[in-house]
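User: Could you walk me through two proteins back to back? I'd like the raw sequence and the structure tokens for each, with a short line separating them so I can tell where one ends and the next begins.

Assistant: Of course. Protein one, sequence then structure:
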Amino acid sequence: MLTLKNDYLTVQINPLGAELTSVKDNDSNLEYMWQADKTYWGRHAPLLFPIVGRLQDNQYRLAGKTYQMTQHGFARDREFTVVSQDSATITLALTADDQTKALYPADFKLTVQYTLIDHQLKFAATVENPAETPLTFSFGAHPGFNVPLGDPAVDFTDYHVTVSPKQVYQRVPLVGPYSDTKHSVPLNLTQPLPLTHDLFDHDAQVLTLNNHETTLMLSNSVNDHGVALTLAAPYVGIWSPYPKQAPFVCFEPWWGLADDVAATGDIETKVAIQHLAAHESFQAAYQITYF
């Protein structure tokens, strides 16, 4: 396990999947990150690459050939190489090999960086296309936060999500595990969104952000502990497993979506897919403030 530490927080990152696994307050020992209890969900904060969400029949076509890939892709289960590490920053990388090419026949380099500054953890990802041909992919993150945070007297339903800017957002419904982009519905977030388990009875709440800078804050009316995630991405998901009464919630920055209900299986025309020209690069970033 890799560690970043300053006067306020201690952060742990697993090279397997380059996954953020722990963020603790140094004074109180309060753990902010979900601790991967498999009863509910056996991960902490996986990275989603080269797809976000589920493919129809767990397969896609590229250049006339069919490939198999499970939900959220393979990066979360691959060992990343540590490129560099100092007291404030850890950089890790994943590159294509024979195993990845059996699922995803492309050359790529995925580099991720975690930087700890005071009470804030910054995340940045770069996807590079070293090939002469275009690269088609999606990218996402999936950090989970404990709810409640530290105080057993605080209930899941004492928490709410405040989204800034405060406005009406378009929400992409999920039909089963698939996106229904043609039937987006308005979601009024001019006021905080109360957390209930029933909120997720149709899976994640997926907001369309159109790459505008947006902050989601998880807080409660009982104590001062919470987190705030700031991103500029096409979409963000808010998720907790249902009907399980799971004591956590995820904020998920997405540069992609699960297959549309009307998907043809052709990854080149997949909804919200990213296209990267030869020798070009793509950047994604978000930051989390812990309080």
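----
Protein two, same layout:
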Amino acid sequence: MKKFHLNILGERINPGFKSTRALFDTEDFAGIQALAVKQVEAGAFALNVNVGPRAKSDPQFMAEVIRAIQAVVSVPLSFDFPGADVQEVCLKAYDQGKASGQLPIINSIAETRWDLLDLLKIRPFKVILMGTERLEDGVAKPNKTGAEIAATAKRATLRMVRDHGMTVSDVYVDISVSALIADTTGMTRATLDGIRLISSDPELKGINISGGLSNIGQQLPVNAADGSNLKEQLEFAFLTLAVPSGMNTVLGTPWRAYKPLDDDNFVLNTFKGFIDLTGSNALRQVRKFYKA
């Protein structure tokens, strides 16, 4: 069976998963450790760590989770919280020696959250960079085209290289994957265009392009019109187009067999018909995924 050559950033240590939230609620550190081991054994190159709002109200719990995970696995960790105060706790709790010498990852930096780079005074780290928003004349603005996504990624990455001594390969650009049911403005096309533009830029050679896929099938039925698993097939359809264009990393579930879809696949062809549409035409095409 064909599979993508993807780097999988394990997503399961996150209270968005009910089973994981139960582990946090009961402070079941042995269960959290087992989940970490399961992801690494399934091929995760790193683990994303997100304990939800408790990271703010009880940052030491986040530190305890980090230490528990590092006691059983030796991959780098990604710290998923927008606040510098929590990220500081994470960076101080992280033991690089227990991660085979590999740097931690800050999830996530944006031009609108540039102050997080002050944390480099604590220790070096890699970054997940948000390609979906930019700072323009001091105002945060969403990126709506592939050119805007690529320009933000380039500007921010080269600034980190120039001003902070990072390398291009230290950066994972999060291109963000939209929910199809709400995409009436062509954001999916913009995302795919952004991937192509970033990966083809010689000044960004070695950069990583990442994204989470869980939003893409949000609020859609379980099954496609051909009886297949719609959400899974949509994730695979997106990757079938994105990976050849340069996407190399997924925030995802390591034991899911991410694979390219055949040219005659129903969901892939319906997806191809969707990405160039906007407005009511896009909504009509979405219905074709699940209505015969």
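The chain has a mean pLDDT of 96.

Let me know if you want the two compared in more detail.
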